[in-house]
Write a sequence for this structure.
């Protein structure tokens, strides 16, 4: 399968679910954004590593680096490999130089461990086609295109979106994107797609 290189654009608190955050990954050479809801612990672990903060005692994800190094291994890349019923799946590619293994994991854990190895982050193209938010420019004016996604996001008031017209939803969508509220944008995108 084709894989697309990503970079971490940021982490924001989730308005959809308490005690959760949105990890926003962006296409390295493109305009698509992939928001993934992650837990508080994983968000903290990613943020600490990105900010180069060293806690007094190692966090769980910090333990993987010395452990794998002691076995002559390292994480080469992280791949967001699938999305099923709104849940993302990932793999860590680990190698000892002569052998390579793909280890199934949650995306949040894969990213938290992968950044400690400075591993590249990728997503399979079909994941981006299904779940990414894309930005494009046509005639100097920015617009947004949302690919189809089969499963509605959990714990956000989808019912309240049914009260708005398509035009109102498109306006709300643009506002959510400007605020980088990708979770809300995904919900609005899904409601617009459902009506078409």
């Amino acid at each position: 399968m084709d894989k697309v290189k990503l970079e971490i654009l940021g982490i924001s608190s989730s308005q959809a679910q308490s005690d959760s955050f949105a990890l926003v990954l962006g296409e390295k050479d493109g305009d698509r954004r992939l928001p993934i809801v992650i837990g508080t612990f994983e968000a903290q672990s990613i943020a600490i590593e990105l900010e180069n903060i060293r806690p007094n005692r190692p966090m769980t994800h910090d333990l993987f680096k010395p452990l794998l190094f002691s076995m002559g291994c390292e994480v080469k890349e992280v791949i967001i490999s699938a999305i099923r019923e709104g849940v993302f799946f990932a793999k860590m590619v680990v190698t000892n130089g002569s052998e390579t293994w793909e280890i199934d994991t949650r995306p949040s854990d894969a990213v938290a461990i992968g950044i400690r190895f400075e591993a590249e982050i990728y997503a399979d193209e079909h994941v981006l086609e299904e779940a990414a938010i894309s930005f494009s420019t046509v005639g100097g004016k920015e617009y947004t295109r949302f690919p189809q996604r089969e499963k509605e996001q959990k714990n956000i008031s989808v019912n309240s979106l049914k009260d708005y017209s398509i035009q109102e939803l498109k306006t709300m969508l643009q506002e959510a994107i400007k605020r980088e509220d990708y979770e809300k944008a995904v919900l609005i995108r899904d409601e617009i797609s459902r009506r078409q």
Summary: Confidence is low (pLDDT under 50) at residues 137-156. The first strand starts at residue 3 and ends at 13. Residues 135-195 form one domain. DSSP finds seven helices and nine strands in the chain.
